[in-house]
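RECORD TYPE: inverse folding
INPUT: structure tokens
STRUCTURE:
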């Protein structure tokens, strides 16, 4: 199974915080009363460089809804959401001296001449609302508000001279009898020291003196806490008193001595019967209800500064400490305790062991021991063990030490050298030879045996093998597996029956594991090897290694080391330094220890006894109760909070959220396509890892990683859903946002584009229709042209036929005209002959014939010779034949006479002068004269033949 899948299924966080931890109702007490009471809770430091403000932190409060922490810092109001810090400054940049938060989440702060409250603005960032304008006293401007109390009657703002009550948007001044120090709210009562007078109770608007408290007027009362059923602890700068309602008694002499020397400044009650007292000179004390000191934190053992200015217990039970220099968190809620060698006196631990009632630590400087039944006794060096210690092992009630100089047997505070063979890295008891041990050293494999008294003594080295061995295991077939150092491969050894020599060696090189073998283990009777490519197990039937993913799906490829426990539990050290624990049949559970304090390449987790496991660190060790490993808290941690969304590097686009109160949909322009999302989980002592998935952008959940922000670059326009979950909770948070398309690609522009596209399609369609029409027209025109050509051809043929017919008709007409003309000529010639003959007859006959008869015949002949009627008939027939020749001739030559036209017609018919003379019934000379006159009218030169001109005209 892949890491991402395992993490998605698992990560119901381990019960170290133990909201239902029955023991931890006094978890700290049970541990303090154990043998390891010298170990302390974890201290988490936040420096001014971390939170980005000033050193002094005058007040601490936790938001009841968001769980965010707020600090009254000299720079302003500090906000911490578990991932990031932010400082809010007051309008006049005063130092914030006090902070308090009511149940509705309104954050009140006080400063010099100023107090008010903070609420989220439109962009989600806190916005300040001043209440100072409601104050009438001008001297208020010189007062600092050092204390704020949330009471049922209103919010009290207190300086050393004034007390103001804010209720229903009104301010009322509660004038004290004299100068006062601090008001303390205890068991629904308000108690305040009036300087020089004693302890008073504020009842309504009145101050009432507590009898017997007058002596406190000369002291400085810095804390009043409940104790028992009805009593009070009154802590002054020099002592603590118990007040039962009638008298004051010193609380605890030993505690008072410490307080008198170090000046008490703050105090709070934590848990049922624990108290925390902050001093000005020596840090924080945590005591029981009877004053016995449980823990003491100061600059020597982890606090950044020993001057405590403020304290606050968060809802998980952890203690926040505001210091004169920085902020510390005391992880009281976790059952894990720490021993830290702050002075560096012990060196770097490599191994640990509990032997009897003594705890031993093997470091690079030697073996140190500490009797567990004497809490105040420090670790001491065992003489003769100076140098590098590699291994501490308790075998058959004997403590053996593998050392750079050899191997020792340790009893109490004494060490005896068993072997001078250097570098005792690892020792194992042989299962099939219970009276023998096998050890890997710098150079050889060594065998130890029990002597007559049952004590381990050196026996011999195994021949046939020489190599440094850091890890070794024995399998069920009596074969010895060794991991040679450094990264020189895994070997399988078969020893002789007398354990004196190696009879067979089989080596498994890098190619078997996809790279150098890192570590060798025996878990559940199987030989396992880790490498950069994952986990491999030995398969006896094939005598080869194969992937162990199917056998151990919860062991992912990012494992650096495994630490099996005797009860089949198993610790997993991942490549990123995080530690998990797994029980057979369950899923891995994260262990909240720091990932950057391991001893590189020599990481170690040691089972000290049946109750505790130790984790070696660079400057000490972490102590884990085994009972806590079996407790899992599910469903207690809400999903992570998406804190802010910013578009690119433009702060003005930032939207901040206090909880999951973001709008249903955030919108950004297309120019803001780079989105930065920040998130947090306000559980301050747990190592938080996040997995995310951006719907419509990424395809699956990412592996869990210790990040608190994610930037997505150049997102295309569209709607996105950001899914986020942490390893503390299976629930996820979601945020929907939209990247708007550019103006040229929004809904209106798309509608316009659709319209334009429709128009384009319509235009294209119209063009297509036009093109089709043009093509059709072209085809039609071609067809018409073809038809026209055919028709013209036909017409030409018809015309030709008609022409031929006309020509034939013309010829016929011409022939008829010619025949008619010839007939006319012949007729006229005949008539002329008849006339001449008649005249001759008349002459010959003389008077024998009547003259009237001759006259009548002569008139008749004259009438029929070339009459006008004959000419009209001739003209009509001539025009038909010669296409209105005479009409055109008159149009061009309007001066032509009728006689000229007749002559022109006769000339066009190519008649001779004689023939024309006969037709005109004139002489030849008259015809020539007419021809001459006609030529003049036509304006023809002498070279032009008149007959040819008429024929061509």
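DESIGNED SEQUENCE:
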């Amino acid at each position: 199974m892949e890491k991402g899948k395992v993490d998605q299924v698992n990560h119901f966080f381990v019960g170290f915080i133990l909201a239902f931890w029955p023991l931890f109702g006094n978890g700290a007490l049970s541990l303090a009363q154990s043998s390891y009471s010298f170990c302390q809770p974890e201290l988490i430091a936040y420096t001014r460089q971390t939170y980005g403000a000033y050193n002094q932190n005058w007040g601490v409060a936790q938001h009841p809804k968001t769980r965010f922490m707020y600090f009254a810092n000299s720079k302003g109001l500090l906000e911490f959401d578990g991932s990031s810090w932010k400082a809010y400054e007051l309008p006049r940049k005063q130092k914030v001296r006090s902070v308090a938060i009511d149940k509705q989440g309104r954050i009140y702060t006080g400063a010099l001449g100023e107090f008010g409250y903070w609420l989220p603005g439109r962009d989600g960032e806190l916005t300040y609302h001043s209440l100072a304008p409601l104050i009438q006293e001008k001297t208020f401007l010189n007062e600092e508000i050092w204390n704020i109390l949330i009471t049922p009657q209103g919010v009290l703002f207190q300086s050393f001279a004034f007390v103001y009550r804010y209720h229903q948007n009104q301010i009322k001044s509660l004038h004290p009898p004299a100068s006062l120090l601090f008001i303390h709210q205890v068991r629904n009562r308000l108690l305040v020291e009036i300087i020089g007078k004693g302890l008073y109770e504020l009842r309504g608007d009145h101050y009432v003196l507590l009898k017997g408290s007058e002596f406190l007027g000369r002291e400085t009362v810095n804390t009043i806490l409940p104790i028992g059923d009805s009593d009070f602890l009154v802590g002054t700068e020099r002592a603590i008193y118990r007040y039962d309602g009638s008298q004051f008694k010193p609380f605890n002499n030993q505690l008072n001595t410490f307080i008198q020397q170090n000046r008490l400044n703050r105090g709070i009650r934590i848990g049922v019967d624990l108290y925390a007292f902050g001093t000005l000179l020596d840090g924080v004390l945590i005591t029981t209800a009877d004053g016995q000191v449980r823990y003491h934190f100061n600059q020597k053992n982890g606090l950044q500064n020993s001057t405590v200015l403020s304290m606050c217990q968060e809802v998980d039970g952890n203690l926040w400490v505001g210091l004169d220099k920085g902020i510390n968190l005391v992880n009281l809620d976790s059952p894990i305790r720490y021993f830290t060698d702050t002075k560096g006196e012990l060196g770097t631990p490599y191994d640990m062991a509990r032997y009897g009632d003594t705890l031993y630590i093997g470091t690079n400087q030697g073996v140190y021991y500490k009797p567990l039944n004497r809490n105040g006794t420090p670790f001491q060096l065992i003489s003769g063990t100076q140098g590098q210690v590699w291994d501490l092992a308790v075998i058959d009630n004997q403590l053996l030490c593998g050392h750079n100089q050899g191997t020792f047997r340790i009893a109490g505070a004494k060490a005896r050298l068993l072997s001078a063979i250097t570098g005792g890295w690892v020792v194992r008891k042989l299962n099939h030879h219970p009276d023998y041990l096998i050890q890997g050293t710098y150079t050889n494999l060594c065998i130890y045996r029990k002597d007559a008294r049952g004590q381990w003594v050196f026996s011999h080295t195994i021949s046939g093998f020489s190599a440094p061995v850091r890890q070794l295991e024995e399998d069920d077939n009596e074969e010895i597996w060794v991991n040679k150092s450094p990264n020189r491969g895994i070997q399988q050894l078969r020893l002789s029956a007398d354990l004196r020599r190696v009879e067979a060696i089989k080596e498994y090189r890098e190619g078997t594991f996809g790279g150098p073998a890192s570590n060798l283990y025996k878990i559940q009777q199987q030989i396992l090897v880790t490498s950069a490519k994952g986990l491999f197990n030995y398969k006896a039937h094939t005598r080869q290694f194969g992937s162990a993913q199917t056998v151990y799906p919860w062991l992912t490829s990012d494992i650096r080391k495994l630490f099996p426990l005797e009860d089949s539990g198993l610790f997993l050290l991942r490549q990123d330094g995080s530690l998990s624990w797994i029980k057979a049949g369950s899923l891995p559970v994260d262990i909240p220890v720091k990932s950057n304090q391991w001893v590189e390449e020599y990481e170690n987790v040691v089972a000290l006894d049946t109750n505790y496991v130790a984790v070696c660190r660079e400057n000490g060790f972490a102590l884990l109760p085994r009972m806590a490993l079996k407790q899992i808290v599910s469903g207690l941690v809400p999903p992570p909070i998406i804190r802010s969304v910013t578009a690119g590097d433009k702060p003005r686009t930032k939207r901040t959220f206090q909880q999951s109160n973001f709008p249903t949909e955030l919108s950004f322009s297309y120019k803001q396509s780079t989105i930065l999302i920040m998130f947090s989980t306000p559980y301050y002592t747990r190592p938080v890892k996040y997995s995310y998935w951006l719907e419509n952008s990424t395809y699956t959940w990412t592996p869990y990683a210790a990040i608190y922000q994610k930037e997505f670059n150049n997102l295309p326009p569209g709607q996105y859903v950001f899914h986020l979950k942490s390893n503390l909770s299976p629930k996820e948070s979601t945020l929907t946002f939209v990247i708007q398309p550019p103006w040229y690609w929004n809904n209106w522009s798309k509608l316009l584009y659709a319209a334009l596209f429709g128009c384009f399609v319509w235009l294209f369609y119209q063009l297509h229709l036009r093109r089709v029409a043009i093509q059709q027209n072209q085809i039609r025109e071609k067809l018409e042209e073809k038809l026209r050509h055919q028709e013209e051809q036909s017409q030409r043929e018809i015309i030709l036929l008609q022409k031929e017919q006309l020509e034939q008709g013309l010829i016929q007409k011409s022939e008829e005209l010619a025949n008619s003309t010839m007939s006319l000529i012949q007729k006229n010639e005949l008539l002329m002959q008849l006339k001449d003959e008649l005249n001759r007859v008349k002459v010959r006959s003389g008077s024998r014939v009547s003259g009237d008869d001759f006259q009548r015949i002569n008139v008749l002949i004259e009438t029929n010779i070339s009459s006008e009627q004959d000419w009209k008939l001739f003209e009509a027939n001539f025009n038909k034949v010669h296409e209105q020749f005479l009409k055109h001739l008159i149009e061009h030559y309007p001066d032509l006479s009728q006689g000229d036209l007749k002559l022109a017609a006769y000339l066009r018919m190519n008649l001779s002068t004689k023939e024309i003379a006969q037709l005109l019934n004139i002489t030849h000379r008259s015809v020539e004269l007419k021809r001459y006159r006609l030529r003049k009218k036509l304006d023809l030169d002498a070279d032009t033949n008149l007959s040819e001109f008429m024929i061509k005209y």
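NOTES: The longest strand covers residues 729-739.
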